[in-house]
């Protein structure tokens, strides 16, 4: 009856209704179906996913997983341009940081910790660097302060996990380096060093070699960059970089790509294969690439993609508006303005091929985009280009790689929204817009 409801909510309601009458159950279902006011599966899956990420850097922390994500953690977390202060997203960040510092330096007075934290402009790395030089001020350690609920500031959790386990991380990195030196020495003595067919690095030990299906040898970085560039160009086939006519196997792609990139690529590849099968009755979600065969008598398309989970109308392909008919949906002026701004934000985010008008967005790779029609354009300025001479690091030409793609996309979207607001006069009278679609991006 409520397929899109949060299962934990349904279980709780089922427990409440267990000893009640059938009429009570009917009342509950009628009210839920009429109002739609109940926690959804979408929010449940999002919360579960968020909690899994939080657990990765708190209770579920492991050295191997952390070092796989951050091979050089000292360099990553010591970057002076990286900020980890309290975020507007979580008002408990200050308390979370303070509790960590108190429990990490049990032999120092709290007032001294607070003073250094304030002097360091709430920069945790600087605070810990200074506190590490302090002598013990207490003969006995203070009692451990009970930790507050885990922060939702993921970057902050990563940093605190690094600082909390820094000694163990350094020890493991040192062991990794020693093992690598021994393996390389053994490879040299036995003539086992290999050469990458792309970058021509001649000192690859066997453990650093990755292969296409024909056995061509590459280093991890070359395959990773090549495949990510192809993904950014909208491709789902990944031929060998040595042009031998073979491709890379799925297990090889899984080993070289980041888990998130691989997962999305695999999902797109699977959906592409399903669409090519020309299955009768197959329909796709209007909001993602999920495809399935819905029941013929159902007016609703229910997306089962965990990152989407939207219900849409099969006739007009908009968000489900049951019990209203498509012709009965009317939008007030505020919705029209918000929709206009959202459309401009989408236009600013997406890129359109000047030759075939195909719309796309880059997930990774360089900024030289090659459309399936053969047209080449710059992802930064959207101008048609011929080759890599368009790019450079001189501050005049467009960069070949975008360091922070999420930030680049967010900036473009916000700029699109800003222009739309000026066109609508909202910049002069912000009260005209009830729901600002940029509120979660600023």
TrEMBL record:
Listed name of the protein: RING-type domain-containing protein
Organism listed in the record: Photinus pyralis (Common eastern firefly)
Pfam families hit by this protein: Rcat_RNF216
Family annotation (InterPro entries): BRcat_RBR_RNF216 (IPR047545), LUBAC_E3_Ligases (IPR051628), Rcat_RBR_RNF216 (IPR047546), TRIAD_supradom (IPR044066)
Keywords annotated in UniProt: Metal-binding, Repeat, Transferase, Ubl conjugation pathway, Zinc, Zinc-finger
PROSITE patterns recorded: TRIAD (PS51873)
CDD domains, per the entry: BRcat_RBR_RNF216, Rcat_RBR_RNF216
Annotated RING-type domain residues: 192-402
Pathway(s) it belongs to: Protein modification; protein ubiquitination
GO molecular function, one term: transferase activity
